[in-house]
Amino acid sequence: MLNFNRTRTQPRSTRSMSLGGIDYMDPKKKSNVVGKILLAASFTALFILMLKQSPTFNSPSLFSQHEPGVTHVLVTGGAGYIGSHAALRLLKDSHRVTIVDNLSRGNIGAVKVLQELFPEPGRLQFIYADLGDPKAVKKIFSENAFDAVMHFAAVAYVGESTVDPLKYYHNITSNTLIVLEAMAAHGVSTLIYSSTCATYGEPKQMPITEETPQHPINPYGKAKKMAEDIILDFHKNSDMAVMILRYFNVIGSDPEGRLGEAPRPELRVHGRISGACFDAARGIIPGLKVTGTDYKTLDGTCIRDYIDVTDLVDAHVKALEKAKPGKVGIYNVGTGRGRSVNEFVEACKAATRVNIKVDFLPRRPGDYAEVFSDPAKILTELNWTAQHTDLQKSLEVAWRWQKSHRNGYETTLPMASY
Ligand SMILES: NC(=O)c1ccc[n+]([C@@H]2O[C@H](COP(=O)([O-])OP(=O)(O)OC[C@H]3O[C@@H](n4cnc5c(N)ncnc54)[C@H](O)[C@@H]3O)[C@@H](O)[C@H]2O)c1
Ligand SMILES: *[C@@H]1O[C@H](CO)[C@@H](O)[C@H](O)[C@H]1NC(C)=O
Ligand SMILES: *[C@@H]1O[C@H](CO)[C@@H](O)[C@H](O)[C@H]1NC(C)=O
Ligand SMILES: *[C@@H]1O[C@H](CO)[C@@H](O)[C@H](O)[C@H]1NC(C)=O
Predict the structure, then answer these.
(1) Where are the domains of the chain?
(2) Which superkingdom (predicted)?
(3) pLDDT average, residue stretch 192-220
C-alpha cells in the first residue's frame, strides 16, 4: 500500500487497526513508573501525530457521508492524463474528490501534486485499487458516499487494442460494468462517461454529429461502444443521470504547469502525435514519421480534431452541472475544426522551437483521411464551446511542462532552468 500525508490509501477497517495497536501493553506487567510515563508520553505524541496526518481525525471520515452543498466525485483513472486534470478542476471548484487508480498507466506523481495543492481533510483521497476487482470496487462504494462518478480509467491505444483485444474488452467494457453495478447497488445517481470518436469508425460524412452511425473498426472503439451500450440499456430502467462524452484527439496540459501528460516509456511505441512530437523535439526519438501524403485533403495529410484538455475538463464540469435524473446526454467534445498532420507538425516545431526531422512515408493501413466533430449539440445544450483552439499555444503549454519534467513525474526540474 502506498502512503501519503493525509491520504486515505486503505479501507477503513484495515486502517483503524494501526491506531488500535497502541493497546498491546500488558497492564499487569511491573515496570518503573518513569519509564511507563515516558512510554505513555511518547505514545501519546505518536498518536497525536498520526491523527494529524489522518483525514479520519474527523471521525467518521468526511468521505463516508454526504454533505449538503458538496459534490463528492469519484474520479476513476485520476492518476492518468485526463483524469488528473479533471480532478484538479473539480478540487478548484470546491468539490470533494476520490481518485481510484491502480497506477498501471497513471502516475502517482500527479496524485502527489494534487495532494500538495489540496491538503485539507475531506478534499482529496487516493485509493489504490483495480476496477477489475468487483470485491474491491464494492468495498470502495460501501465505505464512501459518492454523488457522482467520472469514469476515465481505461486502456486507450488503438494500435495496442488490435494486438491485445482482450485487455481492452476487460479493462474497458468489463470494468465499466463493474463500476455501473456498484453505482446501482449504492444509489450513486450521476455518471459522466469517457467515450471516444473511435466509436464512430470511418463515417462517410464529415463532420461527425452524435447521430452519425457508430461502426467502430478496432477493439478500442468497439470496447468503448459496448460500454456505452451497457450504460444506455441500464439507463432505460433507472433514474441515473448519464452523460456520455465522446472526445476527439486530446492535447495540451494545465496552463499553470502543475500537471502534464506522462505516459510510461514502454507505451511510447503506441504514442499519440503530441507525445511523439515532444519526444522528437527532445531527441528521444530521431524524428517524426508522417504516414500518408496522398489523402484527398488540402495538403494530402490526415485531418483530425484536436481538443485542449482544459476545454475537455470544462465540458465534464458542465456535464456534471447539467446532468438530470433519468436523462441521458451524449455529446461530441471537439473544436469542430480539422487540422492536418502537416499543420500539427508545423505548430509543434514552432512551439518547441526545434526543427524536428520529418519523414514522409506511405499510408498506414486503417487510417482514415478526415475526422472532425460537429460540436453544435454541446454548445446548444451545455453552453460549452472550445476556447483553446490555437494549436501552437496548446502545444507551447504542454511543451513547457515536458521540458521541465524530462522523466515525467519522477523528477522535477525548476521551470526556469531552460
Ligand atoms: N487521450 C485521448 O486522446 C483520449 C481520446 C478519447 C478518449 N479518451 C478516454 O479518456 C480516458 C482517459 O484517457 P487518458 O488519455 O487520460 O489515459 P491514461 O492512460 O493517462 O489514464 C487512464 C488511467 O486509468 C488507470 N487504469 C487503467 N485501468 C485501470 C484499472 N483496471 N483499475 C484502476 N485504474 C486503471 C490507469 O492507471 C491510468 O491512470 C480513457 O477512458 C480514454 O479512453 C482519451
Ligand atoms: C491493474 O489492473 C489490472 C486489471 O485490470 C491488473 O491485471 C494489473 O495487474 C493491475 N496493475 C497493478 C500495477 O496493480
Ligand atoms: C487489463 O486486463 C488484462 C487482463 O485481460 C490485464 O492483464 C492487464 O494488466 C489489465 N490492465 C492493463 C492496464 O493493461
Ligand atoms: C454561456 O457561457 C458563457 C461563458 O462561456 C456565459 O457568459 C453565458 O452567460 C452562458 N450562457 C448561459 C445561457 O448560461
Answers:
(1) 62-408
(2) Eukaryota
(3) 96
